[in-house]
Fold each of these.
Amino acid sequence: MTSATLHDFLRSRRSIRRFQERPVPQEALTRILQTTLFAPSAHNLQPWRLLEIHSPQARRQLAAILTAALRADMQRQKASEQDVQQRTARTRRRLLAAPVVLLYCRDTTAVRQPDDPQEHHMGVQSVANAMLYTLLAAHAEGLGGNWICWPLYAAKAVRQELDLPPHWQPEGMLFLGYPAEDPAPPPRAPLDQALRRL
Ligand SMILES: Cc1cc2nc3c(=O)[nH]c(=O)nc-3n(C[C@H](O)[C@H](O)[C@H](O)COP(=O)(O)O)c2cc1C
């Protein structure tokens, strides 16, 4: 594989929000998660903890918590009841329909100095790296994925309802599956807007 091909691969990953019903083979998912473990992490502490959520009951529980948090947030922002109902119904539908739902947690004990805010930050960054590695590994398998930040809004309730260990801090979710859409790349700001050279 040439470096140009690899750059094309990295640039062609898209957030995929609509999936075919075709199931994802467990072997493919396991390969993806094995590759995820190669993500860089601060001090190589690998603080990510992953949950594959297959059970329809667990998904329904999760949907109930997340839509309650979404409803509360939208009501605080004075959204109309119609908008609230549309968004919550869509959220629930996406969560129940995604072929693969992965919850990424941070092990709050996997840290060198628990009271150091910078170390805490590095733990969050490390989990984000794992999530990105999963998205790229899924892309390599011909799958699409979408990063979902909703668990951040109800982390404690998610932990309790899914009976997770107290030191598993939910950070985000990924939905994966075979793409049922081919979205155009969202615009990227030019490099000179993001970069300064000294
Ligand atoms: C931290 C983070 C949180 C995100 N949360 C959501 C989300 O909750 N729902 C969603 O549909 N997309 C979410 N995304 C996906 C972004 O919207 C997407 O990456 C961005 O629009 C660029 O599109 P691309 O991934 O196709 O390049 C999130 C991405 C990141 C990195």
Note: The chain has seven helices and four strands.
Amino acid sequence: MIYPWQTGDWQRLQQLRVHWPHALLLHGQSGIGKFAFAQHLAQGLLCETPAANGEPCGTCPACHWFSQGNHPDYRVVVPEILAGFVAPSGDGKSDAPAASDDNDDDGKKSRAPSKEIRIKQTLALVDFCALGSHRGGLRVVVLYPAETLNVEASNALLKTLEEPQPGIVFLLVASRIDQLLPTIVSRCRQWPMSLPTPDEARSWMSAQDVDDSAALLAEAGGAPLRALALAHDETRPLRDFTLQQLATGANCDAFACGENLQKLPVPVVLGWLQRWLYDLLAQHMARRPRYFPGAAKALARCAQSADPAALARYTKTVTLQRVVENHPLNARLVFEELFIAYRGIFTA
Ligand SMILES: [Zn+2]
């Protein structure tokens, strides 16, 4: 399945079918369905009786194995943390284990699942590529998110990309192309994925049976899948609490924030804070809020009493904090400090 806003990309890509690139890098904003698209593309490439437009038939043996997650000529490589959440087929379900060859079973069960694609995983691809095709057709590898390839894994992959073997197709999927090694990017045919138009995004969201889809879409920066994820996000009440606190400006209760938010991952809270600051700045420059249009009044009130220089300095502090966000910090202290500093923006 592909999303309605992806049909143009699908049709244009089919024109490459005669000389399919060895490695294709699908990139674009997060939350627009790039991974589902890559999987569907993989199925289309593996299908033994595809339609004229490249659509997989859904009934041949290859399609059957693909939907079962065990096509022998197909590999999905994701960070360990995503294994189990990611279906190998493009049907949107998340109950099938992915990339069973990716798990590290060497007795380190207690450590947190890796957020990176590691060298062990890309080395396994070298073996996969060395084998012949089981079905006599293409072999396809999907790597997602490609920006989570760590340096060692990237270098191991690079060797495979530099010596393309016939019949192997790599589909790399990335939201942050700037975080990929330039040598990897240069080995791939780059393919920027189309964003849904606001109309397409709204119409898709309105069919999803969620409340207030317009606000969710705004908060997700127009990315429909991200908006849908927000609707089902169990941190929603805490996010509402945070926005209420931020709306009080100089009266923000930093200690209550530290207390209530301490169990959340630091990046989640930083994300809320960054979007709020973006809107505050927008409001200051007499522009409409982008992420929290529902909080326009509070934003206007805060913008009025904020000192522009202090706001700029604080925004920089939050941005810098994002660099270290994945380090094991005491979340409660981080939040207390951030929200105390937030109060300092306001002059009244
Ligand atoms: Zn088929």
Note: The domain at 4-195 is CATH 3.40.50.300 (Rossmann fold).
